[in-house]
Amino acid sequence: MWLFFLVLCVSLGLLWVYRHFMRRYQFWAELNVPYLEPTFPVGNVGDTLKPTIHFAHIVDRLYRQLKHRGDYVGIYFFRDPVLLVLSPEFARSVLVKDFNCFIDRGVYSNAEVDPLSANLFFMEGQRWRELRAKLTPTFTSGKLKAMFHTIVDVGTKLDQYMEEKCTGAQLIDIKELLARFLTDVIGSCAFGIECNSLKNPQSEFRQMGKRMINLPKLKALKVFFAMMFRKQARSLGVRFNDKDVSDFFISVVHDTIRYREKNAIRRDDFMQLLIDMMKKNGVTEGEGVTFEEIAAQAFVFFFAGFETSTTTMTCALHLMAKHPEVQQKARQCVKDVLEKHNDELSYDAVMDMEYLGCIINETLRMYPPVASLHRMTTQAYRLPNGAILPEGIGVIISNLAFHYDPEFFPDPEAFKPERFADKNESKNNFSYLPFGEGPRICIGMRFGLLQTRLGLAMLLRNYNFTMDSCEAQRPLRIDPINLLHGPAGDVWLNVERLTKP
Q1: Closest C-alpha among 95, 42, 44, 81 to residue 65
Q2: 379-393: per-residue pLDDT in tens?
Q3: Omega before residue 41 within 30° of 0, cis
Q4: What is the pTM of this model?
Q5: Whether the Cβ atoms of residue 299 and residue 116 lie closer than 8 Å to each other
Q6: What are the start-end ranges of the E strands in 284-424?
Q7: Residue 225, burial from CB neighbour count under 10 angstroms (0-12, 13-18, 19+)
Q8: How far is CA 330 from CA 136, 312, 333, 359, 427, in A?
Q9: Which residue among 7, 22, 275, 280 has the highest number of C-beta atoms inside a 10 angstrom radius?
């Protein structure tokens, strides 16, 4: 009897779930918005259950399938309706023109149990506006110039390390090497700490960086659940960051602040700018930041700063190894600019390396670390067809799809840095969005580009990068589980130090 009762309860439960999903699947039809017919229970994103495809590529496939439908189309992420943007013109509306209706990203955070999630990337609404206004001045040209020498110091250590290693042609996992280099850069600029990851690959900062990016499958599923069911995840106390990772970064920030205050030390770095803001608390209302906010911002600066630039530099060197003529032109660019600047690798010299900028822009087109942009309606929004989107509806823009659309970038599979030689081409029509756009554009964009330019300039100045002919025929394999859009596994290149004339 109890078995019959159990089967009946399970059957009724499944029936209720099915009917609930079917009711949700009427959302776009009732708004008279064109949509893709969903499949129970995965909606239109069943491939997310496959461990071999990155989420950005799933959205890219949907874009290619549906782009003829107009400016936007309705799809379903499991049970939830999501508006997929199909044109740069409507992307402009979401990101800039009608931004007040799409302020939030709709990503999961839980500051009560995970204080580091209260960072600028995750924050929403008025809290985000206030913190963004406070932090924006920290990334001016003057502040970046002040941090420049810190990046150069770490870059010099990279050059010394490679000089010792590259006594002849040497096969190097360039992805791991650059991750250690940029861990040291961000550790120094964000925390004022020498991480020594170049000499010690097992340094604590490097290990924490790996754990933030390389999620175990179980944790990846937990994060995916939290993103899909934010309210339920908050009630269950789901954390984005593991507690020991969170405790590590909070302890580092606390110790750094205490050491500087005790010894009256000031440094030209991101941490000092945050400390100065914290000291404004109680002096100028609304200008200061709390310790928890400092810790969260330092954490996201580390998380976003080292991994995105690692991905970009790795992909750029991989592409230049496949295209030696581009690499040689880039090296000549570095050489010519340095001659104009008395062979000094200064801030102005690095910013004057225009062809290097073209290579970085083209690399970001082909391999954007953030390959899809997410927004959520924060108030009712009237679509061009007159339908009213209620608050809380997700919106997704596939910048990866835009970047590979031949309508916007002819011959998109080809590596052509020259397509960005005209500074105005493809940069302002919302088909090129490696950093997002509008008020929520990546606040650290200029810093990220600066450290990427400087790192590539120092490497190209002294080293040549090649790959075996068989490897040159293979595209980079994208890690399907990584939160960011980047290469999977090791990226091996032949590296040889150039002889000075």
Answers
A1: 44
A2: 999 999 899 999 999
A3: yes
A4: 0.94
A5: yes
A6: 373-376, 381-382, 388-389, 394-397
A7: middle
A8: 32, 16, 5, 8, 21
A9: 275
